[in-house]
Amino acid sequence: MVSLLLDFNGLILLMKEEEKRRETERQYKRALKADPNNAVTHLDYGNFLATAGRLKEAESQYKHAMNADPNLAAAHNNYGVLLENMGHNDEAEKQYKLALEANPQFAVAHFNYANNLKEMERLEEAEKQYQLALENYPNFVAAHHNYGLLLQEIARYEEAEEQYLLAIKANPKDKDIHWSYGILLEKLGRKEEAAIQYLLA
Length: 201
What we know:
201 residues, 82% helix
């Protein structure tokens, strides 16, 4: 009886969430009907669709956003993320470059571009983009972490440790960073320190 009640409650919650999503989508459609060339609304609607896994529809909205405002850096960045998630790394790179042409201080675009370059094994270029991300946003936790992973991959262990420590300083509760730092410490033979990091993960 209890399990049935829990399942029923879960179903009610799912139905409520679905109705919220439908209402949100209706609002986006109304807004675009009133102002079809609003780049930010197209961008936000694209983000909504991408989160829902409706990638082709999201792609269409990002393209509308970029057509309405070719210098909207966030649209190029988010479209780049979408393309990368679809496995189109070369096309994603073009979008990240356009985002950074529109806004050279856009730390998130530098970070996403770095991740894309790392995935394509262009590690020197990726390192430069991580550095630019951190230059523009020094407390960017994910950038410190991913830069640390890159440095660890190319056996620059002291520098990798420095990046992990900066990431932990910025966000001591991030379990993934503690885990990565633990792996590095274990690789360096510092097993007791590694054990502490694993416990924090």
